[in-house]
Specification:
10-stranded mixed sheet, 376 residues, Isopropylmalate Dehydrogenase, alpha/beta, two-stranded antiparallel ribbon
Length: 376
């Protein structure tokens, strides 16, 4: 009896009327998807996200994200806090909110030049141990650039190096600044870069350094990268000196895949790659640690814009919209991330609604309205 039942099932599946009618005969719908993501109970509950609008264009672009999230009924809600770059420290209630929610979306925070005022961006990264900065620089269809086939991920160590902030005036007119590098932090950023490459089907990791001059500090970083690379035999590993790296970036950027860098080099490399691939206004990014993550515009140059852009309300929201798509994936809401990313790419590909930095004259709100109109 069991054998006849199996034979009968096979006969139905091979029915001459085709597979779709056979499945309908078994009671299945024609367009049913296979299971691609099996959430744990509770994964679909709305998540709280700490929101820091920031300075300059920050409130404009974070407001754009809020509008799009609401339009697509994304399962997130925001706890908003006012933080500005001229504050001496990040308010404790903001730190507590990020610790509680695990995730933050942030506009740009202005960092005063000189004067001994510490960067709040650096404070946040150190306080929450957001040791990895990730910036994805890639060509967007419809946005003309000098180079094609650019798809670079810059993984930057976020807590050490020149950004340690350990500097003092030894005697009047003589300042000493310490570049701190440890084996622990070098190993974990190298491991993160290789894990990212492995999980995202990337083929190569390039370590960027200046070990020919800073033989101990950058030498330690290279040593860590080499050790970690042996544990990922399927991923090609190579090294490049930072000055040669910048030259290669502007001449042949398509040769790079994932790049892992110490702190200062990563900032320079990420902004250079962003400029090559279409500008800082379209490059997403985030900062992540073991327990917390902050998503923001990927390249720091121009992340607060200028007063004229703010007054005209013509800030480009694309970078933060794509960063919020990264955030949705981080929160395990991949379908919402795909919808948002697809809509933004459609707007860019169409080319009718572009801000000034992309060759158009649209306002932030006009871009937002177009993104919402193209949501599936």
């Amino acid at each position: 009896m069991a054998f006849r039942s199996v034979s009968r099932l096979r006969h139905i599946l091979r029915d001459a009327n085709g597979p779709s009618s056979s499945w309908r005969g078994l009671g299945f719908t024609e367009n049913r998807r296979s299971v691609t993501y099996m959430p744990r109970p509770g994964d679909g509950s709305p998540r709280a996200v700490t929101l820091i609008p920031g300075d300059g264009i920050g409130p404009l672009v974070t407001g754009a994200v809020q509008q799009v999230m609401e339009a697509m009924h994304a399962p997130v809600y925001f706890e908003t806090y006012e933080v500005h770059g001229d504050m001496t420290t990040v308010p404790q209630e903001v730190i507590d909110s990020i610790r509680r929610n695990k995730v933050c979306l942030k506009g740009g925070l202005a960092t005063p030049v000189g004067g001994g005022v510490s960067s709040l961006n650096v404070q946040l990264r150190k306080e929450l141990d957001l040791y990895a900065s990730l910036v994805n620089c890639f060509n967007l269809p419809g946005l003309p650039t000098r180079h094609e086939n650019v798809d670079i991920v810059v993984v930057r160590e976020n807590t050490e190096g020149e950004y340690s902030g350990l500097e003092h005036e030894v005697v009047p007119g003589v300042v000493e600044s310490l570049k701190v590098m440890t084996k622990f932090c070098s190993e974990r950023i190298a491991k993160y870069a290789f894990e990212y490459a492995y999980l995202n089907n990337r083929k190569k990791v390039t370590a960027v350094h200046k070990a020919n001059i800073m033989k101990l500090a950058d030498g330690l970083f290279l040593e860590s990268c080499r050790e970690v690379s042996t544990k990922y035999p399927g991923i090609k590993y190579n090294e490049i000196i930072v000055d040669n790296c910048c030259m290669q970036l502007v001449s042949k950027p398509e040769q790079f895949d994932v790049m892992v860098t110490p702190n200062l080099y990563g900032n320079l490399v990420a902004n250079t790659a962003a400029g090559i691939a279409g500008g800082t206004g379209v490059m997403p990014g985030g900062n992540v640690g073991q327990d917390h993550a902050i998503f923001e515009q990927g390249a720091s140059a121009g992340n607060v814009g200028n007063e004229k852009i703010v007054q005209q309300k013509k800030a480009n929201p694309v970078a933060l919209l794509l960063s919020s798509a990264m955030m949705l994936r981080h929160l395990q809401f991949p379908s919402f991330a795909d919808r948002l990313e697809t809509s933004v790419k459609r707007v860019i590909a169409e080319g009718k609604c572009m801000t000034k930095d992309l060759g158009g004259n649209s306002t932030t709100q006009e871009v937002v309205d177009e993104v919402i109109a193209k949501l599936d």
